[in-house]
Amino acid sequence: MLRTPPPFNLPDLASSLSKLPGVGPATAAALAAKGLRTWGDALFFLPLRYEDRREPTPIAALQAGRLAVVEGRLFSSGAYGRQGKVWRMVVEDGSGRLTCLWFRFSKPRLEAFAKGQEVFVVGEPAEAKDGGWQMAHPEVYPAEQIQAGQGAVGSIAPVYPGLDGVRPGSARKFMAALIKKVAPAIEDPLLGVLPREIYPFSAGEALGRAHLPPLESRPEDLDPLEAGWRRVLAINELFYFELGLALKRRRRESLGGRGLSGGEEMLRRFLASLPFALTPGQKQALRDIQADLAAQRPMGRLLMGDVGTGKTVVAAAAAVLAAGAGAQAAIMAPTEVLARQHQATLQGMLQPLGLEVALATGSQNGQAREAARQAMAGGTALLVGTHALIAGGAEFRDLGLVIIDEQHRFGVHQRLKLVSKGGEPHLLVLSATPIPRTLALALAGHLEISDLPERPGNRDPVATRLVAYEQRREAVEAMAGALRRGEQVYVICPLVEASQSLDAQDVITTQRNLAAYFPDYQVGLLHGRLSADEQEAALEAFKQGRVRVLCATTVVEVGVDVPEATLMVVLAAERFGLSQLHQLRGRVGRGAKPGQCLLVAGPNPGDLGLERLRALQATDDGRQVAEADLMLRGPGEALGARQSGLPPFKVARWSLDAGLVPALREAIAALMAEDPPLAGPAHAALREEAVRRWGRRLGLVEAG
Ligand code: ADP
Ligand code: MG
Questions:
Q1: Domain spanning 264-452 has what CATH number?
Q2: How far apart, in whole angstroms, are the C-alpha atoms of residue 223 and residue 5?
Q3: Ligand 1 centroid to 455 CA: how many Å?
Q4: How far is the CA of 529 from the centre of ligand 2 (A)?
Q5: Are 264-452 and 463-638 in the same CATH fold?
Q6: Is the CB of residue 243 less than 8 Å from the CB of residue 225?
Q7: Residue of the nearest CA to atom 4 in ligand 1?
Q8: Whose CA is nearest to atom 20 of ligand 1?
Q9: Which element (helix H / strand E) includes 179?
Q10: Where does the pLDDT of residue 155 fall: very low under 50, low under 70, confident under 90, or very high at 90 and above?
Q11: Is 311 in the pocket of ligand 1 (CB under 6 A)?
Q12: pLDDT single digits (tens) 622-639
């Protein structure tokens, strides 16, 4: 794992939170449970909302549920009810009366208030049965205390996300102490670089406004989604990420590369050998790649296409162009299973041209490892493997092209450091991450983009249907039908092993049940806890059609290609991400017959769960699916940074901030045009900060 550097370049930010006043061991543990250990972590422990305690509100102007300060005189105060279990104060301010109730209280504290006394009360008003206002468990202070300037009133109080066992007031106190110490010391070279309209104040000031809102704040400043401080912090994050990408692109270009040309004839033969014609998108992508490869600088290209749009054949064609020019190509797959499958597919495509395709994965040992090493060193045209292929410092005779099939784990290539003798090798990244092009541009700013907008052939979309838990027999009947027609079936389960509940959503129980139910057919089992060899064997048996039903977890999600599979049944479908389900259903209907996907809900799918599944039923377009996921779950979960490989931002949100990126890229392009090495005094600080924040994650510096 790469450690995330502190958010700003300030040595203090590495200090432990327990060095702040008010952070004892219990508070430190509660903070650590939220991943907050250092001062740097806590800067972005941002308020959820604010309590506006600036001015008292007349009782007549109170609004239900909206925190208010009331200044008035005690009309009455005392215990009432059976056994005096409730304490009641009635406050009047000339505009009306407010009843304050405590059901739990410290008697000595409340007894100290006397009838007729001037008080301040802070709480959330609710309408009482008699039509007046009441507050349950408000804060109450003697007026002298407030007038003496004690902070409970006359301020704006941030409300932080709850911390177990930590009182809200205490979070306010240590956060205020932290910000006062740190914020003024944060230097912000961006302030002089970006136009004032988009970056009106420094990041340090933004943090000050977020945690210690000034008394003159306007209502929009107190809305954490709308506030100017949030925008400044988001821009600060996005700018340095984009600058990191720009530096990466420039570095690649400056390394120089070797033009790979002369492969046209072999490409022509390759295309002629295919059983199909390329789609217009595939043709265009291939033209882009051909031009890139021929140039004297390293290609950096992202080939984006939904599942089933035919990226593999484009990658194969690129490898043919490299081989025709006398260079080797390497393809890296995200999993070992997929690497083996690619190797088999590509061997079938390339052998007729006399090109060898060898396998090199991390789990190989002994003879296989030696064979892989020899293939690389001996000049075998195409090597297929996992990341171990290159990570292990492999020696190629002449590596000219690297292809990375990262499927939907977007961005894993960014850290990769490639070396070869003839200069930087050409790079082609294949991605099925269903993200809008603008987002891809922002995230992969150092790559050019080719799109595959259409699926080949007139293939029908996979007919997708939601099946209620109570109707799950329908799925079994559909399976029986497919099996009778000689077709194959995937059954996908969310779990490997049985959990407490007896819903049979685990793949092991499901396989056992189905094997008993369909005694005439072989029912296979595939999940990530099997060894790579066992997974390979299970998949191979399914591919050859010996096994007709494959019970699997999401390991089949990435790129498995079995043309005879027509039916996919997903159990407890609401437990999967929508984009994940979309990837999954792309596994069926890849051959001549149309595919069908049955999403069987679990016993308690929830309304949101069902709504999400209906969205999937309604569209076959991966980007629409991603957008639906985004709308229904929010970007954090839908394109979860960890799962998708998107970079982790603390404040920036694509749904809110993607529109800012073009202006930032323009500003960066202008800077780089004016001062290409970014060496000038105003620019060096920007470059250093981008490298400090992103250098390792983008592979700009050696990971140490
Ligand atoms: P993905 O983009 O998901 O990696 P694949 O490369 O695995 O998709 O291609 C999906 C299927 O479509 C494969 O069986 C492949 O042989 C087939 N295919 C690719 N291009 C075409 C085409 N132009 N016409 C018909 N079938 C194609
Ligand atoms: Mg693929």
A1: 3.40.50.300
A2: 28
A3: 8
A4: 23
A5: yes
A6: no
A7: 311
A8: 310
A9: helix 168-182
A10: confident
A11: yes
A12: 777 776 766 665 444 444
